[in-house]
Design goal:
The chain is mainly α and about 220 residues long. The chain has 2 domains: about 15-80 and about 140-210, no CATH class; about 90-135. About 70% of the residues lie in helices and about 0% in strands. The radius of gyration is 17 Å and the shape is globular.
Length: about 220
């Protein structure tokens, strides 16, 4: 009798903990609580600190809104009990400075066009993006720039935000991820996307294939 083959092992350039973090963020972006819970259990089993899960949940505020962040933290408290600690507030000036530094790293030469473009949409949004989005949230301790960009990609891919998705795939490579890792995070998000999200992921992959993604800069994320 022929033995039934076991499950196929899928190779990924992402570490076990980063895969779990991306899956958690993508699932909560879509409100898929059972999948998010499974991802948290995997993240814990991978030996990651609970702080990483907290940061992933807080980041959801930027991509999926306050409801997703609140629900993400609620799911975290049930699946992985613990007590989060408040961070020390730096104030708007320091948040703006560190936000600008990180935003420049992510966008590279496109940064000089980014701020005027966002300011043209609304001047307050340009300020909030740098001071709050990058300075207060994404530049926090608890997760490095590479991991945050990969989690961002997974969240955006799950929601189908095409322009931002392309920007952050490129941004992930600029801060030190490999192109393979960035595209793997895209796939993790696309797995949880609806029809629109999957179409956006396909177009994003095609666009990056045409224009080229910068080559790998670091080892496994």
């Amino acid at each position: 009798m022929t033995a039934t083959p076991g499950p196929r092992t899928v190779r990924t350039p992402l570490s076990r903990s980063v895969v779990a973090a991306c899956r958690f963020a993508a699932a909560m972006s879509r409100g898929l609580e059972p999948e998010a819970t499974d991802a948290l259990l995997e993240l814990r089993a991978a030996g990651a600190p609970r702080k990483l899960a907290e940061e992933c949940a807080l980041m959801l505020m930027l991509y999926a809104g306050y409801p997703a962040a609140l629900e993400g933290l609620r799911v975290l408290n049930v699946a992985w009990p613990g007590r989060a600690r408040a961070s020390r507030e730096l104030g708007p000036v320091r948040n703006r400075a560190r936000g600008e530094r990180l935003c420049r790293r992510v966008y590279g030469p496109a940064y000089r066009k980014l701020i005027p473009a966002v300011r043209a949409l609304h001047p307050d949004l340009a300020t909030w993006m740098v001071e709050h989005g990058y300075g207060r949230v994404l530049a926090r301790a608890g997760a490095g720039a590479v991991t945050r960009e990969l989690v961002t990609i997974a969240s955006l891919a799950s929601l189908g935000w095409e322009r931002q998705l392309v920007s952050h795939v490129l941004g992930a490579v600029r801060v030190g991820a490999t192109s393979e890792a960035a595209l793997a995070a895209l796939e993790l998000g696309a797995e949880r996307a609806g029809t629109r999200g999957r179409a956006v992921a396909r177009r994003t992959r095609a666009r990056l294939a045409r224009t080229g993604v910068p080559g790998p800069r670091t080892r496994r994320a």
